[in-house]
Design a protein that fits this description.
CATH topology of the domain at 2-117: Jelly Rolls
CATH superfamily of the domain at 2-117: Jelly Rolls
Structural class: alpha+beta
Radius of gyration: 18 Å
InterPro entries: cNMP-bd_dom, cNMP-bd_dom_sf, RmlC-like_jellyroll
Order of helices and strands: HHEEEEEEEEHHHHHH
Number of strands: 8
Shape: globular
Number of helices: 8
CATH class of the domain at 2-117: Mainly Beta
Protein name: Crp/Fnr family transcriptional regulator
Largest sheet: 4 strands, antiparallel
Keywords: Activator
Helix content: 40-55%
Strand order of the largest sheet: 1-8-3-6
Strand content: 15-25%
Distance between the termini: 29 Å
């Protein structure tokens, strides 16, 4: 699994093989069972994660008790926990058995001091992810429910088989019934 991390270290840093190995040796890779809650809405995050294998759902519960799914994190995606000194507005739950890099936010600065290029790599990955999220959000706002579904089929077709329909519908901003009707109209691959 750490070979995935090595790919990013090679792509975003100029660390030599020995330095890369030192970073890999310090990074914690943990396994989580399906249903594990990584962070509850209202709790203050103390870890950050990167998905090596599995699917993690990000959602919030509104005033009426409805769950609103805002993201699914799958292989090779960093999970944005936001500020580590403020309560989270989201819950993060493993939808599948998962293998995650689990970084301790309290020791993050120490790792960055020790391995200077690790901070640069993290920043570059966050910038790429943020740019992609901005594009997705702009397209989401401007598109119809059917167009959102078709876009999801192009960019993340694996979600169709990995995520319960009611959660996928919430993520796409529609009811499960609407999603069902759209799926019938759209020819699936």
């Amino acid at each position: 699994m750490k070979s995935i991390l090595l790919k990013y270290l090679t792509r975003y840093t100029t660390l030599n093989a020995e330095e890369q190995q030192a970073v890999l040796d310090e990074i914690a890779v943990e396994t989580y069972k399906k249903g594990t809650v990584l962070l509850r809405q209202g709790d203050v995050p103390d870890k950050c994660y990167f998905v090596l294998k599995g699917c993690v759902r990000q959602y919030s519960v509104d005033e009426e008790g409805r769950e609103i799914t805002s993201n699914f994190y799958t292989e090779e995606q960093a999970i944005s926990m936001f500020s580590h000194d403020k309560p989270s507005g989201y819950t993060f739950t493993c939808l599948e058995d998962a293998v995650l890099v689990a970084g301790d936010l309290d020791t993050e600065e120490e790792m960055y001091r020790k391995h200077r290029q690790l901070e640069l790599m993290t920043r570059k990955m966050i910038e790429e992810s943020f740019g992609h999220m901005q594009e997705e959000f702009a397209a989401f706002i401007a598109s119809s429910p059917e167009a959102r579904f078709k876009s999801m089929l192009q960019s993340r077709p694996d979600l169709l088989d990995r995520v319960p329909q009611h959660q996928l519908a919430s993520y796409l901003g529609m009811t499960p019934e609407s999603l069902s009707r759209i799926k019938k109209r759209v020819q699936l691959p």
